[in-house]
Design a protein that fits this description.
The protein is of the alpha+beta class and 140 residues long. The protein is 48% helix and 24% strand. It has 4 helices and 6 strands, in the order E-H-E-E-H-E-E-E-H-H. Strands 2-3-1-6 form a 4-stranded antiparallel beta sheet, sandwiched between helices. It has a two-stranded antiparallel ribbon with strand order 4-5. Strand 4 and strand 5 form a beta hairpin.
Length: 140
């Protein structure tokens, strides 16, 4: 018996406006785009697509899909310019075999982004103030 393999795609949603997007809208957008670019075959192959996690504050999503058709989704993501009803840009950050690997990547990604931001500050006081703001926003 053969095991059914899945792939988990970590997606970043970028928008100029404050985008209000739900997991269901994101899944619907991906399915419609697969149908647009790959026809009925593409729609049938991504039918089991499921948005497992959606981090609304950071606009990151983890999408589960079968092993073969994950290539359809990763190839059409740069071509999608609308998420829901608003303009947005979708970007693949990582493709992994487990959710755990994706969560590890998110932690490393966030640490790298924070290091880049902290590196731009001129004084230690600015750095401490920024760290306090970030920790306070995580508590709320």
């Amino acid at each position: 018996m053969v095991r059914f393999k899945n792939r988990y795609i970590l997606i970043q949603v970028k928008s100029e406006k404050n985008l209000k997007l739900t997991a269901a809208e994101l899944a619907d957008t991906l399915k419609k785009s697969a149908h647009k670019f790959y026809g009925d075959f593409g729609l049938a192959s991504v039918n089991n697509l499921n948005v497992k996690l959606f981090y609304d504050k950071r606009k990151l999503a983890i999408v589960r899909i079968s092993h073969g058709p994950h290539r359809f989704i990763t190839s059409i993501l740069p071509l999608i310019n609308k998420a829901g009803k608003e303009l947005a840009q979708l970007r693949v950050l990582y493709v992994g075999a487990t959710i755990r690997q994706c969560k590890k990547f998110v932690l490393n990604y966030n640490n790298n982004v924070l290091r880049k931001i902290i590196g731009t500050f001129n004084s230690e006081a600015e750095t401490k103030e920024f760290i306090e703001e970030v920790t306070n926003s995580l508590d709320n």
